[in-house]
Amino acid sequence: MPIRLIVGLGNPGPEYEQTRHNAGFWLVDQLANSLPGTRLQRESRFNAFVAKTAIAGREVWLLEPQTFMNRSGQSVGALARFYKIAPDEVLVVHDELDLAPGIAKLKKGGSAGGHNGLKDISAALGTQDYWRLRLGIGHPRTTASQQAVADFVLHRPRKEEQVLIEEAIEKSLRVLPLACEGKLDIATMQLHTV
């Protein structure tokens, strides 16, 4: 199935803009900026920034929920129902503690792994069987930090981490046209072997 909805996860507001938890927003912002005539606009019925665009010649929706992370499912569920988009046509882009900065992985289904945005989306879609693009942000334990996870994700990455996250976003953007054509196996292989 081709991807018809790409969701970037993050928290709204300038105080969260540069935090690790907003990596999904960063990717969707860059994707929108790279596509001619594509501009994310506030859509109150979905409580989100939304854009309709074309990727690989196919109609694709871009979505950035403005509900705060733990209520992301409200926006995702509302748009998916309205446009009759099946869960396996949804790709959710989010920060991933269990991957190092610079690593990006595609996968379908699986648990939320403690990610409140994914938990809420799974509840709204009635399944965990949707695609995820996981952008590594690292974990405080890997840097011998005593920082709590909640605190870690709501802070800016260190400069060297930011560079690596940007590289992972670039790699991810290159395989998204394949995902939108329904060639997710090829997209996954390319992303994971780069």
Approximate shape: globular
Please trace the helix and strand order, writing H or E for each element: EHEEEHEEHEHHH
**Integer-rounded radius of gyration:** 15 Å
> Which residues form runs of ≥5 with pLDDT under 50?
none
Strand content: 15-25%
Mean pLDDT, to the nearest integer, reads: 94
The end-to-end span amounts to 24 Å
How would a crystallographer describe the biggest sheet? 7 strands, mixed
Briefly, what CATH class?
Alpha Beta
The neighbouring-strand order within the major sheet is 2-3-4-1-5-7-6
Number of helices: 6
What class, by secondary structure content?
Answer: alpha/beta
Q: In the CATH scheme, what's the topology name?
A: Rossmann fold
Number of domains as seen in the coordinates: 1
Q: Portion of residues in helices?
A: 25-40%
- By DSSP, the count of extended strands is 7
Binding site for tRNA: 16, 68, 70, 116
InterPro entries: Pept_tRNA_hydro (IPR001328), Pept_tRNA_hydro_CS (IPR018171), Pept_tRNA_hydro_sf (IPR036416)
Family: Belongs to the PTH family.
Subcellular location: Cytoplasm
